[in-house]
Design goal:
The protein is built from four helices and no strands. It has about 180 residues and is mostly helical.
């Protein structure tokens, strides 16, 4: 057998091996990118959820303190001295969680998260007794609710969650309205 007769078969083997390598490489690269994107989505979800939970703790404490000052409709008021210590701890947790949001969040979600925690800080001014208008408290609660809704809208968009956002948490809720006499 002459070497020239085997050359086309050799070229076929080389081209086949190169094509097989290229296809496997592209497939593996695609799989790696998809896996990395899934890990980031999981991390973002956990970060956003943890940050929201930290803020909810602060809100709950502030609402209970507001109830002690007769600003809120809560069944379990929390006195100022007890509440201040709890607010301090909750703010420390929120501040630590904030750093993670800054690392993984997109610009819109970070902005919405910032607006939400600033709305919480405003509510805390009433809870601490630095502001005392019942109407101001109501406005602060509404602003907080709107900021929360915007955060969830942006976070869902960043995570690629399809569908409409959850129903608004506008406050006061229907069950908090005075009952009408029938």
């Amino acid at each position: 057998m002459v070497l020239g007769d085997q050359f086309p078969a050799f070229i076929g083997v080389v081209v086949g091996a190169a094509g097989s390598y290229a296809a496997a490489s592209l497939t593996e690269r695609s799989r790696w990118r998809r896996s990395r994107a899934e890990r980031w989505d999981e991390k973002k979800f956990a970060t956003y959820a943890s940050y929201a939970n930290a803020l909810k703790v602060q809100i709950r404490i502030a609402e209970r303190m507001g109830a002690a000052r007769r600003l809120a409709h809560m069944a379990d008021p929390l006195e100022l001295t007890d509440g201040l210590a709890q607010l301090g701890e909750a703010e420390s947790r929120r501040a630590a969680e904030w750093e993670s949001v800054l690392l993984v969040g997109d610009a819109e979600t970070v902005g919405a998260a910032r607006a939400w925690h600033e709305a919480v800080w405003n509510l805390e001014l009433y809870a601490r007794g630095l502001r005392d208008s019942p109407d101001g408290w109501e406005r602060a609660i509404r602003r907080l609710s709107q900021a929360r809704d915007e955060f969830y809208l942006c976070a869902r968009r960043d995570l690629g969650i399809a569908g409409p956002p959850p129903p608004s948490g506008n406050w006061p809720r229907q069950w908090q309205q005075p009952e009408s006499s029938d």
